[in-house]
Amino acid sequence: MRHFLKLISILATAGPIVAAADPALAQEAALDSGDTAWMLTSTALVLMMTIPGVALFYGGMVRKKNVLGMVMQSFAVTCLVTVLWMVVGYSLAFSEGTAFIGGFGRLLLDGLDVDAMSGTIPESVFMVFQMTFAIITAALITGGIAERMRFSALLWFIGLWSILVYAPIAYWVWGGGFLGAAGVLDFAGGTVVHINSGVAALVAALVVGKRAGYGRENMAPHNLVLTVIGASMLWVGWFGFNAGSAVAANGSAGMAMAVTQIATAAAALAWMFAEWITHNKPSVLGIASGAVAGLVAITPASGYVGPGGALVIGIAAGLVCFWGATVLKKRLGYDDSLDVFAVHGLGGITGAILTGVLAVEAIGGTPGALEGNVGQIWLQLYGVAATIVYCGVVSFVLLKIIGAVIPLRVSEEDEREGLDIRLHGESVT
Amino acid sequence: MRHFLKLISILATAGPIVAAADPALAQEAALDSGDTAWMLTSTALVLMMTIPGVALFYGGMVRKKNVLGMVMQSFAVTCLVTVLWMVVGYSLAFSEGTAFIGGFGRLLLDGLDVDAMSGTIPESVFMVFQMTFAIITAALITGGIAERMRFSALLWFIGLWSILVYAPIAYWVWGGGFLGAAGVLDFAGGTVVHINSGVAALVAALVVGKRAGYGRENMAPHNLVLTVIGASMLWVGWFGFNAGSAVAANGSAGMAMAVTQIATAAAALAWMFAEWITHNKPSVLGIASGAVAGLVAITPASGYVGPGGALVIGIAAGLVCFWGATVLKKRLGYDDSLDVFAVHGLGGITGAILTGVLAVEAIGGTPGALEGNVGQIWLQLYGVAATIVYCGVVSFVLLKIIGAVIPLRVSEEDEREGLDIRLHGESVT
Amino acid sequence: MRHFLKLISILATAGPIVAAADPALAQEAALDSGDTAWMLTSTALVLMMTIPGVALFYGGMVRKKNVLGMVMQSFAVTCLVTVLWMVVGYSLAFSEGTAFIGGFGRLLLDGLDVDAMSGTIPESVFMVFQMTFAIITAALITGGIAERMRFSALLWFIGLWSILVYAPIAYWVWGGGFLGAAGVLDFAGGTVVHINSGVAALVAALVVGKRAGYGRENMAPHNLVLTVIGASMLWVGWFGFNAGSAVAANGSAGMAMAVTQIATAAAALAWMFAEWITHNKPSVLGIASGAVAGLVAITPASGYVGPGGALVIGIAAGLVCFWGATVLKKRLGYDDSLDVFAVHGLGGITGAILTGVLAVEAIGGTPGALEGNVGQIWLQLYGVAATIVYCGVVSFVLLKIIGAVIPLRVSEEDEREGLDIRLHGESVT
Amino acid sequence: MKIVMAIIKPYKLDEVREALVELGVEGLTVTEVKGYGRQKGHTEIYRGAEYDVKFVPKLKIEVAVADELADRAVEAIRDAANTGAIGDGKIFVFDIGQAMRIRTGETGADAL
Amino acid sequence: MKIVMAIIKPYKLDEVREALVELGVEGLTVTEVKGYGRQKGHTEIYRGAEYDVKFVPKLKIEVAVADELADRAVEAIRDAANTGAIGDGKIFVFDIGQAMRIRTGETGADAL
Amino acid sequence: MKIVMAIIKPYKLDEVREALVELGVEGLTVTEVKGYGRQKGHTEIYRGAEYDVKFVPKLKIEVAVADELADRAVEAIRDAANTGAIGDGKIFVFDIGQAMRIRTGETGADAL
Ligand SMILES: Nc1ncnc2c1ncn2[C@@H]1O[C@H](COP(=O)(O)OP(=O)(O)O)[C@@H](O)[C@H]1O
Ligand SMILES: Nc1ncnc2c1ncn2[C@@H]1O[C@H](COP(=O)(O)OP(=O)(O)O)[C@@H](O)[C@H]1O
Ligand SMILES: Nc1ncnc2c1ncn2[C@@H]1O[C@H](COP(=O)(O)OP(=O)(O)O)[C@@H](O)[C@H]1O
Known about the structure:
The complex is a heterohexamer, with three copies of chain A and three copies of chain D.
Chain A: H1 2-12, H2 16-21, H3 23-28, H4 33-59, H5 67-94, E1 117-118, E2 121-122, H6 123-141, H7 151-175, H8 178-182, H9 190-208, H10 224-242, H11 251-279, H12 284-298, H13 307-332, H14 340-358, H15 361-364, H16 375-405, H17 412-417, H18 419-424
Antiparallel strand pairs in A: 1-2
Chain D: E1 2-8, H1 13-23, E2 28-36, E3 42-46, E4 49-53, E5 56-65, H2 67-81, E6 90-95, E7 98-101
Antiparallel strand pairs in D: 1-5, 1-6, 2-5, 3-4
The structure holds adenosine-5'-diphosphate (3 copies).
One adenosine-5'-diphosphate (ADP) sits between chains E (7, 35-39, 56, 58, 86-90) and D (27-29, 62-64, 101, 103, 112).
């Protein structure tokens, strides 16, 4: 959907000759103030997902001594990725290039002037909208290495990662690259954003190692009120994320919003009841985690499935991610502190595959397996696998290289005393 | 206004024959991207009113040991009502039916496909927009039984209530039912949302009984910063609630936003000064409560009155609700923990009646008593009475039935130790 | 840009004769639902900047005993300025008048009916949008006198200030007054909002005097998580502030959003690295302050500069404001508690001047010094100077007059025990 | 003089204070503490992780009294704080050699 | 050895600490407490409900000193904490039988 | 009977508790305190302002034991809390004249 619109916009803005040659096309490229209004809004909503959304969602889950360090990471990532996206990321992800990577046509946003269009909206809006996706993807990773990674090493990792991992994968799916061309469906970022961040977080958690005292000491979340605020803002902001990925204020956006709402609620309830049954108590962390799992899983599907499909995706995501965070993680023994892999990685995979099953031709133009197009499942798996492999390998290499230069972890004393005081010279009273 | 638009949309979407027969009408049903953009935004805003709005507004007012339980209730209600609305609520409230209840035409959102329209916006958007109203109404009730109701009993009550009380009343006023047909004015939900939730909360508070230690022990709000964040998000989100109820981005929406802002500020100041005079200190809980009272009271009036009327409604609401929360409640001795009845019930009644007095024909098409249409006051009272009686009776019966099966309250030990630890296995440090 | 639109709207709404005479003009004044949708949204966003944005940004920075008092001030200012704007402020700032002050044509919003237009949007929306600017400007001032000013004196000061200082200066720049006419560029309020509030806060801090124990006692911020939430909401809301100041959903709005994002991130990083280098640690207060500094500085420039200019403005603002808050303030020894002058005053001046340097004709219609129009710098300095002098003098006189009637400060005992308990009868546990 | 130090359940504070005031005690000092004893704590669950919280919130009351009042103070606290349930707490008594009121410099029983 | 235990107004902490350090004291321990006494608390109002908060925030300082230092420590605290206003607090002194520095195992006056 | 009062590093709590329980101690009371001593605090920086935080978070453990257990309790705490680093804390021991279990009214060693 998205890269389709993008293609149109590239065609349409390819020059006055093209536009003049085909008035119908030219008309499609005329600015629509309603679409623009919605995309301006969506951009604000997606930015809000990271600051304060992810910042609080994560900040509430760490121990009190690390809360400022945690929200600092989301905030600093937002700033860093913004500048890098402007300098090079947008160009690599969305300007014309090969099958694997975009070109340098928009380096430093060159040529993106006030009249440049992307479909029916100004390209400036499209560029910032996409920037907010690059931001949140990077910010999500910080949950995997919470409470122990050195701030400077984190900035290096995130900065390089956003250029070398995020931009290419965004290009593959939405920018004109091989996954989009192959027909992989990812409406709003199941692979690009969630599998991507989930895998990177897992790799980082493994490379950086477990927190001191992990499994022995009490590492209970210090303030789940913050986490609930964060989860709520993620939910609200996700309307911009999914319905905004229609890049228009139309029926497709409306349906994306509806299925987002339904899948999220279903996943939250699924996690809550699963926990209620297995651990005797429904927890607020559980229901909030379930909601995020649902949001993640409906992301790739949101322009392709209907309300019924959303219900199925939501329930599946709630159960799979619950299992991932409570059973799988224990069994494998890694310390992905805030369960980025269980929620975003597994949730993203669940959603990507089920998109292939449940896609409805009348909604997004592509039928899924239930409508006879079994091949779509394989396409979806192809997209998932490509993302996991590329992201996994490059993230690992990046961390090893950085780790050879700067220690990835803080000292044990810093970890014991808390990042707030030791790294940032501040504390919450 | 709203049910009028709804009627148009029903007519307009009744089939190609009608549309073809009357091109003007057909044109009205064409998608307007600006209206759609605003309604997508409004939906996000109204969702934000509940999570994190109501969650925080209420969460800050309880004792620390119950804060997670409180925010959990808003969050779980959001999820539960979402699913129920999709399954049956929307159909009962907004599909064609009798004078008293909608039909089953939209069961499981059947027929709500990507092209379905509601006026100038996709029906999917209208459906989710209305869903967020069903959500917040249910969430508001939790303030009445805060700090003592069993979580499972609450879910049963809210679930049944949203189907058996909310959906019918929404239908009466906006869906094509008898109150709307009679000419009762309720632009954005003074009766449907506020009187309704206020009465249900009062009934629930009476049936469930007072908190242990009520009147003797210190039950002061533990963190009014949360309450102010919540009140602020309610205020901001209410622009979606009231201006969104124009279901268009036009002058009516603009005026609704203006009067909302004015009435809210006036009510907040009225409560603040009333408290300053009577209790010597202006409190932050007071000004925030006053703001919510103003928001509530302007809700039914927002498409019908002008700035001057808004000022009057705001001041009246601030004073009436202040009196309700500080004098009436003491006198009657019930424990409506967070004053849902005083603020939403009394505020809603004040607003409903004053709408009948202050409506301006040039704004909403219907004159009020000041413009000579005294009968409108009686119509408004009719709407108020119908809502109070129906909601009161059914809420009572529901609670009695549920209470016969599951205890409505937690054990005294649970209440003493706090819902956070005892019901949800978590705590805020 | 803005007063230009305003002029058009005044012309366009001047009567049917004008409209009929010039169909092109009449068409420009037709309601655009997309523009209206974006302005409704922008209004909500800018309101959110104050409540809860500024309330939290400031609330987190004071000591725990004053946090409720601090958020109360933002909330009460919001209410008070709303009512005053409706009564007289809007008329003085935006109705026809002399070169120095608007008239009384819109007193009590007289004549602002449901069909009144302002450009392509309803005037009701324009009026509330502008109201939110008046609100935040007033709320920002409270940071200068935090933790010591008497609440009643503050209300008097803010109320009079918003009529006697804010409304005239808004008129000078946007309402048709002499600064706008002279060609001073201020897209979204660098002078009107930020220099204005910064100077008023500095004057108030000087007149009211230092906090008891200032420089000796520990006055560390009690909860920077609140401050980060606040800063994040300011950032997100600022999209409404700057991109909303295009008063349309178009390329100008899109570019304003893009440059806002870039300048903010650059300023945040600049402050963070400056602090990292000079104080050895990057602090969360630092990066958040830097972000606000960037938002402030890009405000006047946002409709006139491109991405490259934004980067320069951001870096400059981060460094200048860092220097202001850490070096200049220490050297001069005043107690502007939350650095309103350093961030908003100096940031606003930096932005206003650099707008004159970096303005791009192709973007906002006016070239800056780099494009040969060196005179624009002098024009910008003229606007800065006029604002500083008028605001400084009138603020000083107002405080002296009020101080002659009511003490401006609380008693030392109140200050010691905290404003929460002593002024508002509440506390955070 | 003696200090009577009692560990009690938090919600018993007001009753204990009133009982002491009735005895003529004019001041006391309260500290929030966490107690470990026969009374069990609770378990918190976060996603997969379970944490046994071994400590229970309690209040510690310290009240300095003249020797002759000590036994009655102990009794008064006991009567007010006793619910018969595990975890009601303990009372300890120890001697102090000196007491002084900072404001006046008074010492001994006058200082209390 | 003795422990000198003082209840003081919170904002006096730094002055008291400095006065003790001047005396040669090398360590002390501070606890946030709530005090009940002649100094009245305040009333909080929430909508209709009024709550009398009977307790006032105070700090408790505990400092172990050699016997010969005890009286001077009491005086030092008194001088630093005294404002002449109600609620300035109390000082209590009691004997301890033993003191040990955990790090070194030193006991007696060496441990302080 | 005696009260053994120890100031320790917060993260040593569980080890200390276990060591005491092994000795047969059945209850103890813990208070969050701030300590001043040889161990230095840290500096916090807020925009231009630097604040030296002179106090370090510590826990105070109070455990009432029969006389004969006191020395072993001191040793147990020392062994568990000792890291050899500055700031490990102190142990003080003092006599109590009476102990009572509120629930049962038992006194003396039975009350512990
Ligand atoms: N030996 C002890 N020393 C110090 N405090 C103790 C001791 N034993 C118990 N306590 C305190 O008394 C509280 C109540 O003790 P517990 O054994 O739970 O119940 P009970 O006193 O009813 O037997 C504990 O939580 C702890 O704070
Ligand atoms: N008998 C007592 N035992 C323990 N603490 C006391 C006693 N009397 C007073 N205090 C403590 O001393 C504080 C100050 O006492 P108060 O009577 O208010 O003032 P003052 O010491 O000036 O007479 C109280 O808040 C309380 O913490
Ligand atoms: N004289 C004292 N009286 C009371 N507490 C003390 C005393 N000296 C030290 N402490 C407490 O013991 C803690 C550790 O002391 P410190 O001097 O930092 O290290 P160490 O005990 O290893 O020499 C301090 O933080 C303080 O809480």
